Amino acid sequence: MINVLIVDDDAMVAELNRRYVAQISGFHCCGTASTLEKRKSLSSTVKITLT
Where are the coiled-coil regions (predicted)? Predict the structure, then answer.
């Protein structure tokens, strides 16, 4: 399983990407972040394979 964290400052684009990743076998969206700071805080609590 590849854990994906979506980072985008546009909430609509992030949601579209989250839905797309959810449809791909072997990929799991483990979260979204709108800023680099949020991405850094999530990476300390979630195992991320791909950002």
Answer: none
Q: Is 2 helix (H, G, I), strand (E, B) or coil?
A: strand
Structure tokens at 43: 């990476």
Q: What angle do CA 32, 20, 50 make, to 5 degrees?
A: 50
Tally of domains within the chain: 1
**Domain around 34:** 2-43
CA distance 47 to 51: 11
pLDDT tens figures, 4-43:
999 999 999 999 999 999 999 999 999 999 998 999 888 8
